[in-house]
Design a protein that fits this description.
Number of helices: 14
Radius of gyration: 20 Å
Mean pLDDT: 95
Strand content: 5-15%
Oligomer: single chain
Order of helices and strands: HHHEHHEHEHHHHHEHEHH
Low-confidence stretches: none
Distance between the termini: 54 Å
Structural class: alpha/beta
Strand order of the largest sheet: 2-1-3-4-5
């Protein structure tokens, strides 16, 4: 029987609509009038059209940009699947508030405000932790027991939705996603293996620099965890609760929240894309509101984007996390929108409009 959080999540999902096709057609029609070679900005034109469908209007602007970073610890770290201990999660989370991480500097250039969320760190961080967002102090070790309860997974997803609702009320109209949590490439690989129906070895990488032996141990831990818990790929809350992470669940909520509030949400790398896939499986219509950014350096990064039928805007071989790839894509999206909104039309420059021919 579904608990209160799961029921509320189901009710929320029912309010999500797919992208507005009329707005997308209107955006495509406007692109054809812009005084430049047709389709010459490629994916940037597609991105502007996609955002029009999300915003449900062809004439829109990006005024405020935010980066939501879900921070959480993972009990599976006890199995030696990482190079560092989970105390690093809290250290980096605090550094987000001090302009002391890579993504802080990148976000300044992109004009994005940072919102680190303690959804499940083992230790509280005074400038980050808020009781209403914290589901638990780290997950359990998935090799010995389920990572969390089903209700905790549902609550984490709802927390992500709540964060987006708050940002929407504050006027944010573009949200990038990020995460921080030692061990989260292990949980993401476990979830990806289930949702993609792939062998664990295919979808598991070295994360933050594991040795060859460390990678073997990581693959073995995931395999044994999946054998023990047998998560049902058709039931996302079952997968998240058994082998997932609170950051993944929270980010899944961010994607659902974006669809609910009509705010484009940018996928970051592997962990973020796994969360996006969870959201799309919970609510297929939500997939319309997701924007790709880059192709992660993790083995399954491209696989998950392919499953979502999204093509990355950039491919820099990045695997930093924290939202770095999502933030890097923001200037590209703004450049495309600037041309769309501000460039003269063929009529205005008295040039005959290009004709569009089938390729």
């Amino acid at each position: 029987m579904a608990g209160d959080y799961e029921k509320k999540l189901q009710q929320t999902i029912e309010d999500i609509r797919p992208a507005d096709q009329k707005s997308m057609e209107a955006a495509k029609a406007h692109w054809r009038t812009v005084g430049k070679p047709l389709n010459s900005l490629g994916k940037l034109e597609d991105a502007v059209v996609r955002m029009a469908g999300i915003r449900e209007r062809a004439d829109y602007m990006i005024r405020k940009k935010g980066l939501v970073i879900m921070c959480a610890d993972n009990g599976v770290v006890a199995e030696g699947v990482t190079q560092t201990g989970q105390e690093v999660t809290a250290i980096v989370a605090e550094n987000f508030t001090r302009r002391a991480t890579s993504v802080c500097l990148m976000a300044e250039i992109a004009g994005a405000d940072l919102f680190p969320i303690d959804i499940g760190m083992a230790s509280d961080v005074p400038d980050v932790t808020r009781p209403e967002y914290k589901v638990m102090s780290g997950t359990k070790d998935m090799l010995t027991e389920p990572a969390m309860s089903r209700e905790q997974a549902a609550r984490a997803v709802l927390t992500g939705i709540t964060v987006v609702k708050r940002l929407g009320e504050e006027g944010y109209d573009l949200i990038a996603t990020g995460e921080m949590g030692i061990g989260n490439t292990t949980t993401s690989s476990a979830v990806a293996a289930v949702l993609l129906a792939r062998d664990v070895e295919e979808v598991t990488g070295r994360g933050a620099g594991l040795s060859a032996d460390g990678l073997k141990r990581k693959v073995d831990v995931i395999r044994r965890s999946l054998r023990m818990h047998r998560p049902d790929g058709g039931d996302i809350l079952d997968v998240l609760s058994k082998v997932g992470g609170l950051d993944i669940a929270g980010l899944a909520g961010v994607f659902l929240g974006g669809a609910l509030c009509r705010i484009p949400v940018i996928i970051d790398g592997f962990i973020s894309s796994v969360a996006a896939l969870c959201a799309a499986r919970l609510c297929p219509a939500a997939a319309d509101c997701m924007m790709p950014s880059h192709k992660s350096g993790e083995p399954a990064g491209g696989m998950v984007l392919d499953e979502l039928e999204l093509s990355p805007y950039i491919d820099c071989g990045m695997s930093l996390g924290e939202g770095s790839g999502a933030v890097a894509a923001i200037p590209l999206l703004e450049m495309g929108l600037s041309v769309y909104r501000e460039m003269s039309t063929f009529e205005e420059i008295h040039v005959e409009q290009y004709e569009e021919f089938e390729s």
